[in-house]
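Pipeline run #58 for the internal structure catalog. This entry was flagged by the ingest filter as a single-chain record with no existing model, so it goes straight to prediction. Upstream metadata was stripped on purpose; only the residue string is passed forward. Reviewer on rotation: M.T. Logging verbosity set to normal.
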Amino acid sequence: MRQKLSDKIRHELLEVIDNGTLGPGELLPSERELMERFGVGRPAIREAMQSLETIGLIEIRHGGRARVAEPSIGRMVDQVSATMKHLLANSPASLENLKEARAALEREMARIAARKHSSADLGRLRELLDDQADAISEPARFRSLDGRFHREIASIAGNPIFTALIDALFLWLADFHVDLVSVPGLEALTLAEHHQILDAIASRDAEAAATAMADHLLRANDLYRQSHLPRG
């Protein structure tokens, strides 16, 4: 099959970015320069550039030349989020696999937090749980604080990729997560499990922290499955 002109241009520009000829923040050649270089019209150039913008490698600003994008984990997550949500909505197996991956990641985050936390870290976690207890009758706030508690544990590792992954997982799973913490009677259980995780982290018991986190997430996953069983 004959390669589209825009695909050929995209590939060559991608090579220029990948080999470091143009680095983050540097301007790409103008549309006119690219048209002359490749001997093509403006539509092919724009299609190639829009393709590179879609995958987050360049930034296109109205009235100015495109430039190589600054590396950003957050931008990478944004680029794949729509595709990931589509996959999860149409593939129950992928949804289960992602929840399993989240449990494995957060189990390790709890283990690291138990080894690396500072007194300030513990203070932030305790404050979050105090706030969550106060929000027990406010479902939206309660859920928000639930996410912040998990993100704070990830941040203790000091690795921005961990926090970015946790943010991404919460974003991708948001539309597929039954609000179990909002079901009457389960808010207290969620809080109790959070306190078990925190107590293990504070005690620097890495294995207990990992186990408490795994039990917490597996309990939520089990309840999710039960809520989606066919009713006869």
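catalog note: The two ends are 52 Å apart (CA to CA).
catalog note: The longest strand covers residues 58-59.
status: ready for reviewer M.T.
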